[in-house]
Design a protein that fits this description.
By secondary structure, the chain is mainly alpha-helical. It contains 13 helices and 3 strands; from the N terminus they run αβββαααααααααααα. It binds a DNA duplex (17 and 17 nucleotides) through α13.
DNA sequence: ATGGTTTTTACTGCGTC
DNA sequence: GACGCGGTAAAAACCAT
């Protein structure tokens, strides 16, 4: 065999090996042909016969500790229920059940029952220890109540809770009512989440006056450096459309109207609610679904005059774009 | 506080059912 | 004649300065 032949042979073998290497992920060791096992604990892929390490340094998704019995596992494990900002202590505190039953569901003795009652009392006192905590607890309750009344989803409540928490941390509260700041947080959160509610709607479920909400809202946004884009008219469309029992087609047209209006810059400075209302009305005309201006004005809480003014502009903008 | 802009209120006229 | 719609003027609300 000449030198060149040898080299050629080696190269051929190398290629063979590589091919086998790729296959070996599932099956065979390239050295001895033995079967291969994946050891997830150490992140290695090893031949069971000769011990050749084929793959190493993979991500080990197991825990980095070992436990020898169930109790130890409980002790070392660091996972648990997810935390949530919707509870004033992020859901991390102890909670003693109200039922006088033990872990197996048996009734507690009289003595035990009294003991648990005392524990409950003290636990509650510790949980809401200082004023900040009590403050938060009340505010989050309010936020939850208002969010429910407005049909806002959980993520808005979460955001709102975060905002409130930040306001509290930055000492924005003194001089302002808990109610007011809570309402403002919710208002901001709803807008950030793209499910805005108008100030009027918010006012209806809040215990504070509209002026105060607006004032507090501005203050909170400024102090916290919150970035709240002006409400997008389109985000009101689905709600209005469904309140008026309009078709999807009409809803689509309304969106389109708003898009072309935006392209022409018609929308700046005008109230988003008014634009949305006008777009919905205009769309109902285009699709021959009879809704009156007063119907729309009612669900949108906007005057008929405004609808009239806006929807003319909308239709003009639409024409301008197509021609 | 002020001035400019937008929205609302109140009123009127027109056409249709 | 009630209703839906359009327009107008003046008042009110809103916003930035």
């Amino acid at each position: 065999m000449s030198d060149t032949n040898v080299r050629r042979f080696q190269r051929a073998r190398d290629e063979e090996e590589q091919e086998e290497d790729e296959q070996s992920e599932t099956l065979v060791c390239p050295e001895c042909g033995g079967s291969v096992a994946t050891d997830t604990e150490h992140g290695e892929t090893v031949c069971e016969d000769c011990g050749l390490v084929i793959e190493e340094g993979e991500i080990d998704r197991g825990p980095e500790w070992r436990a020898f019995d169930a109790a130890e596992k409980d002790e070392k494990s660091r996972v648990g229920a997810p935390t949530t900002n919707m509870m004033h202590d992020k859901g991390l505190s102890t909670n003693i059940g109200w039922q006088d039953k033990d872990a197996y569901g048996n009734q507690l003795s009289n003595r035990q029952r009294q003991k648990m009652q005392r524990l409950r009392t003290w636990n509650e006192r510790f949980r809401t220890r200082d004023s900040k905590e009590r403050n938060l607890k009340q505010a989050l309750g309010e936020i939850d109540r208002m969010a429910s009344a407005l049909g806002l989803p959980d993520n808005v409540r979460e955001t709102s809770s975060v905002i409130y928490r930040r306001a509290l941390d930055e000492n924005l509260l003194p001089g302002r009512s808990i109610e007011g700041v809570a309402t403002a947080s919710l208002y901001a959160a709803a807008r950030q989440a793209g499910t805005p509610r108008s100030l009027d709607e918010i006012t209806q479920v809040s215990r504070v006056e509209k002026d105060e909400i607006a004032r507090t809202y501005r203050y909170v946004v400024r102090e916290l450096g919150l970035e709240v884009a002006p409400a997008d008219p389109e985000s009101y469309v689905p709600r209005f459309a469904s309140d008026l029992d309009l078709s999807d087609e009409a809803e689509r047209r309304a969106r389109q109207l708003l898009k072309s209006a935006k392209e022409q810059g018609i929308h700046s400075g005008k109230s988003p609610v008014g634009l949305a209302a006008a777009a919905v009305y205009a769309a109902s005309l285009l699709t021959n679904e009879k809704v009156t201006q007063s119907d729309v004005s009612e669900v949108a809480n906007i005057s008929e005059v405004t609808i009239r003014n806006r929807y003319h502009e909308l239709l003009e903008a639409e024409d301008g774009i197509t021609t």
